[in-house]
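Is zinc ion placement plausible here? Inputs below.
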Amino acid sequence: MSSLKFLNLNFGIAESTHPVWDSVGQNMIEIRKATTKVRMLTGSYMVQADKHKFNQYTIDPTCLLCHREIEDILHVLTTCPVLDSERKEYFTPIKQLVTENSPPGTWKLLFNNKLAVTQLVLDCTKYIKQLGFKEELILKLDTLTRHFCFKLHYQRLSLLKKARRLTIVIKNWMVKHRQWKSEILDNIR
Ligand SMILES: [Zn+2]
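Reply from A.M.:
I modeled the complex. Tokens:
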């Protein structure tokens, strides 16, 4: 899969900048959120599947949160069940904005698969013509999708950190347990 698969390279002929930056302004937090989204959009956001490509023998591409599927960007944004509640909360306003501002049936027609949803979330400019969105709506949609991407990223990282800490605690406990066991056995002998 090309790392620029989701970036609409046709956008920007008449426009000055991509809306992913236009809707951000000067706010540092929003710039940080946009940077996360741009990393996802350009394929530089590292997930297990990418790490596996570089280290095939040592890194398993399976998602470290749900352990059910290979973790690629589609899995993070549309599928991982561990991120379900954040996904639902932040995706509802995106769907609502598109549904309320496009002809009836548009959502079902255009966004009936994970790839199309991922495309909408990462670079909605590919659907500008089909949706008939003007600049104001594009910027609104871009703001909502920026928050969506960042929330999933933030939740993913927090859970991974917790899981790593738990693994360390368990490993330490096992080492201690082995020491106690050998001490007790030594005392008995
Ligand atoms: Zn998962």
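Short version: Residues 19-163 form one domain.
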